[in-house]
Each structure stands twice: as structure tokens, then as C-alpha cells.
Write a structure and sequence with these properties.
The chain is α/β, with parallel strands linked by helices and 436 residues long. Helix content is 39%, strand content 13%. The relative contact order is 0.08.
């Protein structure tokens, strides 16, 4: 065999971890149906041409032994085009990693679904592939607040174009959707932003939140990279038909009359009309915008579609839209808490939405999402680092401040599923955290 070996299309991973490592990364990769070669040490090795053939290097921080992902690539004889997924055994280990271009980070324990999504996305060829995109490297550590503002600005621009009966700039929104996808692979910063309060009539914030939540649901369903990017893009523009309705109707305080509700229900059709003549590569978007209010047993509109006649991406957008509306204020009611909103959408499983879509949202968003902060019944403040599918009210947390706001160094790890005497008192916004 001569020359450079062709990179495989399917993910072929090289897993490196200590022989007696504390994690079960190998077991979960295997459970995700991913092919991998397992090594217990960093050492050069390869095929007949002297180089390893791998589409992704997965390495635990224990195996890094203080080195960087770039050092690990070089030691194994892998080129810089091979992305690296670093599995950190703790939050402290994650903070000590000097990440570089083409590196993603996940803190253990990570779900099988998360590993599948990360590995599948990162291991796509970095060139241009028909119908697929690579997972972009984290864009310079951009703060979630800044990226959130960019999404809202893009949604605002889409509404402005729609008011003039023009389709939005889908190429620019597509690039933004790819960046959102990459950020969602890295951490939950955008998800936490999407759960924060916004004004009752703020369509741009609503669309931004729907895009983020829908993208997270797509990852939870182990969708391919292209479909996740598409669902994020669709979330940003799903309500552009609203811009074709009278502003006094869209912003009317209080409940609508039956005639007003019927007029408001025209917005999917109006939005689809704006997208009817877009470039062929975006032809799929018209059906998603038209069908996002359709429901499994024909309860939706405008066509009363049933079951699998509803576009799968439209189902994801529809559920994200319902959850966002429930968890944020409306003129006629206060917002539900995240837990109350999750309970509401859970009751829609199998009746209004496919069971798998609802399960993905409940598993991915959770009552207390990963990386969010909570105050415990002891008064201590902790960061959520793991969820418990059997009891979403009892996550695994890392205590960062005691009840008197004294920093805890090193942070204490608590599994509330094993500590019935301690509960989560309430979720905290970022602005409520102690300044230390």
C-alpha cells in the first residue's frame, strides 16, 4: 500500500485511555454503534504505510498525562486534520486542558447519545461533502451571550425581509446555524440562555430559543449533522409568516377571539409562500415552516396532517415551539417553570408528537440542564454536571459555594440520587451567582 490512505466515510475512532481508567468510554462508544480501535497508551503505531487511519481521536485526560491534544496527535502520528475529542474525568480536569483548533471537550459521565453525536459530527471529512457539513471547531470560545445576540439579530433581519415580502438571506443564516450546532456540541451555554426570561411579544427571542432548543433535541435524537443544522436554521425562520400579519394582531395583549385565532393560524402558509422560490438547496424548508403546527392525530393546522405525513424536522420545530411558549411569559399568564413545562410536553407524547421527539427534549433539556446552577436545600450553590433520567429532580452536582457564599476549593461532587436528605431548592440565573 503506497501513498496516503483514504479516510473512511463512517466514523473510525481511535480511543486512548489508561488501562485502569475510571471511565467506561469504550463501553459507551460500543453502545453507540461506533467502530473504534482501543489503546491503553500513547505510542506511535499504524498501518502498512506507517500512519494511523482514523477519523477521530478520542482520548481521556488521564491518558494525556498533562500534555495537549496536539501533543497526543503528534505522538500517535496523526495529522492535524484529525479532530480530537477529549473526555475529561472531572470539571477540574476539563479546565486544565489547553484546547486547540479541531478539539472538542466532554466531561464524564456523558450519555451514549452525546458521544454518538459528538463523534459522528467531528469525524466528518473536513472538505465539502454533498448533503453533509463537518462539525466546525468551537469558534474561538465565543461567549453564549454574544452568539445568542447574533441569532436574535438574524431572526430580526428575517422578519424585516418578510415584512417586505422577501425571503431572508438563508446563506447567512445557514452559516450561523452551523456555528450554533458547534456550540451545542461543546456545552450548554446557549441552552441556558434560551431558558432565561424574555418579553412576552419578542418574536426574535422566541425564534432564537426555538432554534437552540430544536438543535438540542436533534442532537438528543442522534440526528446527522446536516439535519441538526437544518433544524436550527428552520427554528430561526419558522415564524416569518407572522411578519405578514397585522402587527396589532401579533402583539395583541390578552386572549384572541375565534376570528383572530383563525387569522393568526394563517402564518405557516404565509411563511411557506415566502420560501416557495428559494434556491433548490433550501427547498426542504418550505415544508418545515408550513407543517410545524401539524400534530400526530390531525389536531394541528393548516392541513390536519397525521403521523408520518408530517415532516420529521417540522415535528422537532413544533415541539420546541410549544416548550418555548410554555416556559416563557404570555400576556394572559406567567411562564411555567422548566419542570412544569417539561411535565406539560411529556403529556403530549404519542398524542400530539412522536414519543422519540418528546423523550429527546425531556432528556436533553431536563428540569436542571447540564452546566446550569442551582441552590440546594442546604443553601449551597452548585453547578449541574449530570442528569438522572429516573428522577430529573435529583441531578449530580458540583458544589462551588457554601451557604455563606464561601468558595469551595476543591468543589464537592454530590449525586443527589444517593442523598435523599438534600434537594434542589431552586434554579439560579447567571446574574444571581456570587461574585468572587
Amino acid at each position: 500500500m503506497s501513498g496516503q490512505a483514504k479516510r473512511p466515510v463512517d466514523p473510525v475512532l481511535l480511543l486512548v485511555e489508561p488501562e485502569q481508567g475510571p471511565t467506561d468510554v469504550a463501553g459507551r462508544l460500543e453502545g453507540a454503534g461506533l467502530r473504534f480501535e482501543h489503546r491503553s497508551a500513547l505510542a506511535p503505531a499504524g498501518g502498512e504505510d506507517g500512519s494511523l487511519v482514523a477519523s477521530l481521536l478520542v482520548i481521556t485526560t488521564g491518558a494525556l498525562a498533562g500534555g495537549s491534544p496536539a501533543d497526543a496527535r503528534a505522538t500517535l502520528g496523526l495529522g492535524p486534520e484529525v479532530p480530537v475529542l477529549v473526555v475529561a474525568e472531572s470539571a477540574g480536569a476539563a479546565e486544565a486542558i489547553d484546547t486547540d483548533e479541531g478539539t472538542a471537550l466532554v466531561t464524564w459521565p456523558a450519555s451514549t447519545e452525546a458521544l454518538r453525536a459528538l463523534a459522528g459530527g467531528l469525524s466528518l471529512d473536513r472538505g465539502v461533502l454533498e448533503g453533509r457539513v463537518r462539525a466546525r471547531s468551537p469558534d474561538g470560545g465565543i461567549a453564549p451571550a454574544a452568539l445568542y445576540a447574533e441569532i436574535a439579530e438574524a431572526a430580526d433581519a428575517a422578519f424585516a425581509e418578510a415584512r417586505e415580502a422577501r425571503a431572508p438571506d438563508l446563506d447567512q443564516i445557514r452559516l450561523l446555524a452551523e456555528r450554533v450546532h458547534s456550540h451545542l456540541l461543546r456545552d450548554n451555554g446557549l441552552v441556558l440562555r434560551s431558558l432565561e426570561p424574555h418579553a412576552a411579544y419578542d418574536l426574535a427571542s422566541h425564534s432564537t430559543n426555538v432554534a437552540i432548543i430544536a438543535g438540542k433535541v436533534g442532537l438528543g435524537m442522534a440526528m446527522g449533522t446536516e439535519d441538526v443544522v437544518r433544524v436550527i436554521l428552520a427554528g430561526i425562520v419558522h415564524d416569518i409568516g407572522m411578519a405578514r400579519l397585522p402587527d396589532e394582531l401579533v402583539r395583541k395583549p390578552g386572549r384572541l377571539t375565534e376570528a383572530e385565532r383563525e387569522q393568526l393560524r394563517e402564518h405557516p402558509v404565509l411563511g411557506a409562500k415566502l420560501l416557495a422560490d428559494v434556491e433548490p438547496r433550501y427547498a426542504w424548508l418550505e415544508a418545515v415552516v408550513l407543517q410545524e403546527h401539524e400534530r400526530m392525530h390531525g389536531q394541528g393546522y393548516p392541513a390536519g396532517l397525521v403521523g408520518r405525513t408530517i415532516d420529521p424536522l417540522a415535528q422537532v420545530i413544533g415541539l420546541a415551539d410549544v416548550f418555548e411558549a410554555l416556559s416563557h411569559p404570555r400576556s394572559y399568564r406567567s411562564p411555567y417553570t422548566a419542570l412544569e413545562a417539561l411535565e406539560q410536553v411529556s403529556e403530549m407524547k404519542g398524542e400530539y408528537f412522536e414519543a422519540g421527539v418528546v423523550s429527546a427534549l425531556v432528556n436533553e433539556i431536563s428540569a436542571f440542564p447540564l452546566d446550569s446552577y442551582v441552590q440546594l436545600s442546604t443553601g449551597a450553590i452548585a453547578r449541574v454536571i449530570g442528569t438522572n433520567p429516573d428522577n430529573i429532580l435529583r441531578p449530580e452536582v458540583l458544589v462551588r459555594w457554601d451557604s455563606d457564599w464561601t468558595p469551595v476549593d476543591p468543589p464537592r461532587r454530590l449525586d443527589l440520587a444517593e442523598m435523599p436528605e438534600i434537594t434542589v431548592a431552586r434554579a439560579l440565573l447567571e446574574a444571581e451567582l456570587p461574585i468572587t
